[in-house]
From TrEMBL:
Its EC number is 2.7.4.16. Catalyzes the ATP-dependent phosphorylation of thiamine-monophosphate (TMP) to form thiamine-pyrophosphate (TPP), the active form of vitamin B1. Substrate binds at H63, E291, Y361. Mg(2+) 5 binds at D241. It holds the Pfam family AIRS_C. This is Thiamine-monophosphate kinase. Keywords: ATP-binding, Kinase, Magnesium, Metal-binding, Nucleotide-binding, Thiamine biosynthesis, Transferase. ATP binds at Y115, G132, D133, R159, S240. It catalyses: thiamine phosphate + ATP = thiamine diphosphate + ADP. The gene is thiL. Mg(2+) 3 binds at D32, D85, D238. Residues 163-329 form the PurM-like C-terminal domain. It comes from Paenibacillus endophyticus.
Amino acid sequence: MDEFASIRHWTADRQGENWQQRRGVVRGIGDDTAVVDAALAEDGVASPKRLLLAVDTMVETVHFKQSTMRDEDVGYKALAANISDIAAMGGMPLHALVSVSVPPAYTPERMRRLYDGLYECAERYGVAIVGGDTTSSPGQLVVAVTVTGTVEAGRELLRSGAKPGDAVFVTGAVGKSAAGLHALLAQEREQRAGERLSPAEFSGTGEELLVLAHQRPNPSVRAGRLLQECGSCRSLNDVSDGLASEAWEIAEASKLRLVLNEALLPRSGSLAAYAAKVGIDPLEWMLYGGEDYVLLGTMDSQDADGMRAVFHEEGLPFFIIGETEEGEPGVVLASGSQSQGDKRGPSTHSCRRIELKKRGYNHF
């Protein structure tokens, strides 16, 4: 099967022309470039709009292994990681370009499964696949995805907007993806070396939700839009490389300190149970694991409780986990028992404070 036959095999009859037109696509797959008119996209973003651009690459053995990710999971996650970057700006994802470097081990049917996962994610989040590139690879599979999105002009959410006295929040539990990867690697070593493992393989063990969080993450698009619309969110980042790493990025961009209250960090029951089972401090995964794709940010502290109520009305999690303060850029973990009846926990000034290192996933 040549390059063009392969592309047709992977992409044909996936997204209808009328549907793509509603995403602002003038010309999709089939010409030298795609043609889009973002102003025509039915994305819920008010004009005037700004275009958001994000790119992410997944490399076999660096970002995934055949034993921990099925082919369709690789496709799904490659797009989801990019969509999360758009969500972190408060934007709406629109289009994607997909480039793959395919080694001999990946047959046409395996690549078809990869595109099954990619298009499943695209359908879920309303992303039009409009083009890409295909090459051979001598060894590992490489999947590179570029995503476009839109946001109201001048209202994109940046890392650099935090102010002293802001509330620090996160839109979901952290550490689950890292724990899921640990479970996958442990099962591979002990029982099923070389086989691809799915969440179903862990049914009844309590770890299936952790594995699902690693293989099929959910970018926080709706959460990003709610934060963009509220007008009091001052900084935002997605948790791709770990909570501590993303907090450091906000601290450095905004030139202040983030103080995270350990008692308020959300941890799932499945994470706590698995950590106890394997004898690992769950904080290690929560602070440094990454690939959770929830949002971390800061906002006017007076509006934080109201924002939590808005999220809960939509069935979305929202946790206030600390505050910002003046000082040399950095991230602090304050530990202490939570005060009775105080949803915010104890004052971080009266707790034991530990400086968190700028550590998380690092490609180099």
